[in-house]
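Regression test case RT-17, inverse folding.

Input:
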């Protein structure tokens, strides 16, 4: 089925497919919209003050990651589950969304921080880190609305 949401892969995406960092995914409009919906819900929920800073940080990160997966999926592709695939997906989607180099740098730092605290029983995340990541999620969603307007009705 041909859809208006499915985008042609860029040369960079084709290269990553060829090098087996990405894989073809059967495209479905509902699944594409679900990625974007998950991104919006997680980013919104990350603003809920009743949750702990760590919980809000994780939620904001998951929202941004869902947006990144959705951005790649709009081209009929998804990352292969392998070492470094999460960081690669973040970087690739930020490039597709024309996010700034500073935003990409901050997102990759947040990803490393998330990896560092993932296994800790008592993790700490500063409130300003949560707010910065939530703001980054909002900017990424705004940029996605500009780049892929047909996905946001």
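Golden output:
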């Amino acid at each position: 089925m041909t859809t208006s949401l499915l985008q042609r892969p860029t040369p960079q995406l084709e290269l990553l497919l060829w090098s087996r960092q990405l894989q073809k995914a059967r495209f479905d409009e509902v699944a594409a919209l679900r990625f974007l919906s998950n991104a919006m819900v997680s980013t919104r929920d990350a603003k809920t003050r009743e949750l702990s800073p760590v919980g809000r940080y994780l939620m904001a990160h998951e929202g941004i990651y869902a947006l990144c997966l959705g951005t790649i999926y709009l081209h009929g592709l998804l990352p292969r589950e392998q070492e470094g695939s999460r960081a690669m997906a973040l970087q690739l989607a930020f490039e597709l969304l024309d996010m700034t180099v500073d935003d990409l740098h901050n997102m990759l730092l947040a990803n490393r921080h998330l990896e560092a605290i993932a296994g800790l029983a008592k993790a700490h995340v500063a409130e300003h880190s949560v707010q910065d990541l939530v703001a980054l999620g909002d900017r990424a969603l705004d940029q996605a609305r500009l780049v892929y307007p047909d996905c946001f009705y």
